[in-house]
Amino acid sequence: MPRPNRGVPEKSKDFKGAMKKLFASLNKWKYLVIVSLVLALISAILALITPNKLSNLTDTITEGIRPQINENTIREILASEDISDQDKSAFIEMAHEMEKEGNSDNNGIGSLAKLDTLSEPVKEKIKPIMDLDKIKGIAIILLALHAVSAILNFIQAFTLTTVSNRYAKNLRAKISTKINKLPLRYFDSHETGDVLSRITNDVDMVAQNMDNTMSTLVTSITLLLGSTLMMFITNWVMAITAIIASIIGFAFSAFILKRSQKYFTARQKELGKMNGHIEEVYSGHNVIKTCNATKLVTDEFDELNKSLYDCNRKSQFLSGLMGPTMGFVGNLGYVAVCIVGAILTSNNIITFGVIVAFMIYVRMFTNPLSQIAQALTALQSIAAASERVFEFLEENEMAEEKTGFKKLKREDAKGKIEFKNVKFGYDEGKTIIKNFNLTATPGEKIAIVGPTGAGKTTMVNLLMKFYEIKDGDIIIDGISTKELTRENIHDLFIMVLQDTWLFDGTVRDNLKFNNEVRDETIWDACSTVGVDHFIRTLPGQLDAEIDNSDSISQGQKQLLTIARGMIKDAPFLILDEATSSVDTRTEEIVQRAMDKLTIGRTSFIIAHRLSTIKNANLILVMNEGNIVEQGTHEELMKKNGFYADLYNSQFKK
Amino acid sequence: MIKVFKNFKKKDYFIMLICVILMVSQVWLELKIPEFMSKVTSLVQTGSGDIGEIMVQGGFMLLCSFASLITAVIIGYFAALLSASLSLKLRSKIFNKVESFGMQEIRKFSTSSLITRTTNDVTQIEMTVAMGLQMMIKAPIMAVWAVSKILDKSVEWSALTGIGVLILLATISTILIIVIPKFERVQKLTDKVNGVTGEHLNGIRVIHAFNAEKYQEDRFEEVNNDLTKTQMFNQRMFSIMQPVMMLVNHSLTLGIYFVGALLISEAGMLDKITLFSNMVVFSSYGMQVIMSFLMLALIFMMVPRAQISAKRINEVLEEENTIKEGKFNGKTDVEGEVEFKNVTFRYPDADENIIENISFKANKGETVAFIGSTGSGKSTLINLIPRFYDVTEGEILIDGVNVKQYKESALHNKIGYIPQKAVMFTGTVKENVTYGDSGKGKVSEEAVKEALKVAQAYDFVSKMEDGVNSHIARGGTNVSGGQKQRLSIARAVARKPEIYIFDDSFSALDYKTDLNLRKELKKYTKDATNLIVAQRIGTIVNADKIVVLDKGKCVGIGTHKELLDTCEVYKEIALSQLSKEELENA
After folding, report:
1. Which of A357, B167, B181, B293 sits at 20 to 30 Å (Cα–Cα) from A170?
2. Residues 184 to 213 of A: which have CB under 8 A from any B CB?
3. Interface size, chain A vs chain B, as Cβ–Cβ contacts under 8 Å
4. Partner residues linked to A559 by β-bridges
5. Torsions phi, psi for B555 (to 5 deg)
6. What is the per-residue pLDDT across A518-529, written as a single tens digit (0 to 9) for each?
7. What pTM value is reported for the model?
8. Phi-psi region of A442 (alpha: psi -120 to 50; beta: other; left: phi over 0)
C-alpha cells in the first residue's frame, strides 16, 4: 500500500554526507539489503519481459482469427469430393480477390465478412484455427513470470521491512545509550522535546520511508531504463513516440509538483503558527478570561485560521491534480502509440502484438518517472531526518576514562572531602567559581544557600563530577577525584534532588533501582523514612505500579526518593531540601526523613530551612553563580553581608 | 461524521451537487475512453489502413481524456474549497467553544487533548473530506457503471473479474482485520518508548548518580523490542498487499485473454473480430472495476479514522457550558468588597466536597490570606471568585452582587488575577503587561513602567535589549520563572483592579524580592482588596485576616497573632517554618 506522502520535504544541510552515513550504518545488514535489491532488480526485469510475451499471445490470438487460405487448404478444397464445383469456383474467385487485397492488408482478415457467403463445407476447411496449445503455453509462462515476480517482490519487501525495522531499533538503542554517554552540559543546554522528537519522529521517518524508497528507486530505475531499451529494440519509431508523449506530460506534472511544494511548505508553516497560538491560548485560559482578552485572541486566531485556509485550499487543490494529470499522460501516450502503431502496421512494419506490447511499455515508462520523483522527495526527508539523528549520535561524549584508575570502595570510604583551589566555569573564559577551598570531615554538614538561580546545582555538578573542574582538585579520602572513575564517585554518593524522579514501574524497582537488595532492606528504609504506611495502602504494595504522574502526591514522591537514597547507603550525601511545591505539613514529615538520612554521612545540603542552615558546620552562600560568602551562621551574621541580608529579609514586614 | 457535515451550508451542498454532476460526467468520460480505445484497436487490428479514421477516434479518445482531466481539475478545486472551508469553520467553532469554556470543561477534556482536537483531528477530517469526498462519490458510480458495462459483454469475463475483485477484497480485509488492532498497540508502544526516554532525559542526574546507565538501557531495550516487533509484524503483513494486487491484476488480464482465445475459436467468422476488440476493451474495463473496488476499500480504511476524529470534535462542540453569563454591567456603589456566604464546592463527578461551608468577608483595602496544606482547597476557593468554577452551594458576592449576575467582562474588570503558574504570551513585555481589556481604556507607556516597578520587574526589563519592547518568546522561555511571575503580577497591576487575587504567586521569588514586592504592592494598592494564597507564613503574617483551611473546611479566621493562640493547624504550619522566637518577633 503506498504511503501518502503529503508532508513537506525538508531540506537537509548536507544531503550527500547524510546519505553516506546512512548507508555506512546499514553495513550490518548489507547482505540482506543487497539481496533484496537484487531481487527487486530481477523482478523488474521479469516485468520487462512480460509485454513481449503478451505481444506473442496477442499475435497468436490474431493468428487464430485469420482464415486458413494458403496453398494447402486451396489444394485440399479443390481435391475434396464433398464440395460442389460451384462452391469451389466461388472460393477460387474469392481467394484471388483476397490475394489482390492482401498487398495492403497483411492480416488478411479485412474481408472476413465475405467468407461468410461461402458454403459450409468450404468454410469448414478454411476456418481459422486458434492454436490453443501455443496460447496455453504462453499464458502459463506469463503466469509463472508474474507469480515469480510477485514472490520475489514479496521476499524483497519482507526483507527490507525487516532490515529497516531492525535498523530503527538499533538507532533508538544507540540514542538511548548515547544519552548516558553525553556530558550533563548537553542536557542543560538542550530541550528534552528535541531529543524525544529525534528518537521517535526522526527515526520513524528514516525507517518507514527507507525500505519503500530503496526498492522503489531500484525497481523504477530498472523499469525506466529497461522499458526504454526494450522499446528501442522492438521499434525505434514507436519508442521515440512513446517517450516524447510521456515527457511532455511529465514536464507538466513536474510543474504542478513544484508549485504545490511551495504551498505545502507555507501550509506547514501556517499550521505551526496556528498550533503555537492555540497552545498558548488554551494553556493560558484563566488569564485570558480574567484579562477579558477573549476578543484579542479570537481575532488573532481568525487571522491565522484564514491564512491557513488559503494555504490548505491551494495545496490540497494542486496535490489533487497529480493523479488526473498522470492519467491523461498515460492516455496521451496510448493514443500516440496507437496512431503511430497503426501507420506502421498498415505499412507492414510491425504486427498488432507490438502495439499491445507498447501500450504496456508506455505505462512502464511513465509510472517510474513519477515514482522516481516521489522517491527523490522522500529521500530528501530521510536525509534531513537521519542528519538530525546522526547529529545527536555524533555529539561529543564525556571524556573516555582511561584504565589504571584508583578504586575507592564504598565500605572503605571514611567520608572526608577537600576542595583545593577549585576553579570552574560553564563557559570558556568565564570562571564563576574562583579559587574555592573547603575541607569537610566525616559526618559534617555543609549547607548551600542563596536565592533562586544562584547556581546551587553547580555544587552538585562538581561533587558528582558531572562537569570537569578547570583547575585545582577535589579530594575524597586523600584520593584526587581525577584518579577516580565517575562510576566510582557516583557509588560513594547518595543524591536526593528536589525534582523527584520516579519511573514507570513497580515501587520495588523504583526503590532498589540498580541495587540488589532484599525486600527487608527496602521495608527497613521505608519505615525509617516513614513511607511504609503509604506503600502498604497501595494495591500490591511493593509490586504496585507507579509512575511520575500526579497519582502520587509530591510529598510521597519525595519520601520514596529519600528511601531510595537510604537503601543505597553511601558515605556522602547530596540533598536538595523540599521547597514550596509541598505543603508545609508534609514538608515537615519529609524533612524529618531527610534529617535521618544525613546522620553519619558527610552531607551537602541545598538548604531552605533555618534549622538546617543554623546547624550546618559550614554555610556556602551563593549568588549569581559564585560562592560569595562562607562560614557558620554566626560568623556570617556578624559579617552583616549578603547572607545576613538574605536571612533578615524573611522576617521583615 | 454526519454531525460534522451539518457545518456545510446550502451553498456548500450546491457545490457538492455540481461536483456530483461533474463526477458523473467524469465517470462517463472515463468509461467512454475504452470505447474509443476499442475502436482504435479494432481499426488498427483490421488494418483498414485508414489512418485518418484512427486519428479521428484517437482524437476523440484524447478529447475525452482531456475533458475528464478538466472535470477532475474543477472537482479538485471544489473539493479543496469544501474541505478547507469545512476545516476553517470547524477550527473556528472549536476555538470559540473552548474560549467560552469554564475551567470545569477544560479540566474534563484536558488542555493537551483540546489542542489536538482543534488541530490534528480537524486536519484528519479535512484530509478525509478532500480525498474521500471525491472517492466516496466516484467509487460507487464508477464501480456500478463499469460493472454494467462489462456484464453484457460476456458472462465468462465478468465472472473472472468478479473472482479477481473477491480475491483482492479478501486479502485486503484479512490484512486489515489482523493489523488494525495492532496499530493501536503500536501507538501505545510508541508512547511508551517516548515515556521511557522522557524519564531517561529528566532523570539523567539520578541515573548517573546511581550508576544505573545499564539498568536504564535494559528498560529501554524492552520497550524498544516490543515496539519493533509489533511494527515489523504490521509492515510485513502490508508487504503481502502489493505483490498480491499486482498478481491479481496481471492474472486477470491473462485470464481475459485466455478465455477470449477460447471464445474466439468457438465463435463464427464475423463474431471473431467483435470478440477480439471486446476482449481488448474488456481488459481495461476489468481494470477499472478492480480500481474502483480498491478505492472503496481505501475509503473503508479512511472513514473509521475520520469517524474517531469527528466524534472527538463533536464531544467538544456539544459540551454544555456549565457557566452561564449574567447581565449585570458591574456599576456598584461599594468597591472592593468580597463576601463568601456558606460556600461549598465539589467537582460534579466527585463525591467529596473540595471546600465546605466557607464564609468570610473582605472589605475595601483589606488583605485576606488563605493558608493550609496541599489539597486543603485554598486555590479552588479563590478560583470561585472569577467564576472559573461555580459554587455548588452558597453564594459569592462582589460589591454586594452575586458573581453569577455579572456580565463576564464586568466581573473580570474588577479582578486582577495572578495564577500560580505565570503565563506569558508571545509578544513584547509591554504587550504582556497590557494584555487584554480592563474596561478602563488603553494603558499608557507610563502606566506600564509603573506596573513593572511595583512588580519589581522594571530592573530586569530595562536591562533587556529593547526594554519594555523586548520580545518574550513562546511560553516565556527567555525569562526565568521568577521573572515570569513578576511580569504576571505587573499585568494584574496594570489593570488597576478593585480586587487582587494572588494564587500562590510569590513561590518562585526569593525572600528578598518577595518582601520588596509586597511592600511596593501594599503602597500602590492601598485602596484595593488583596486575596492571597500562600505557602510561606512570612508572606502573610501581616494580613488583616488569615483564613486557615484544612481538608476544605475553615478551621480558623483571624490575624497571625490571634491564630497562633487559637488555631492548632495554623500553629503547626507556622512552627514548621519558623522557630518560636522568630514567630514571636514577627
Report:
1. B181
2. 184, 187, 192, 195-196, 199-200, 211
3. 463
4. none
5. -110, 5
6. 777 788 777 777
7. 0.70
8. beta
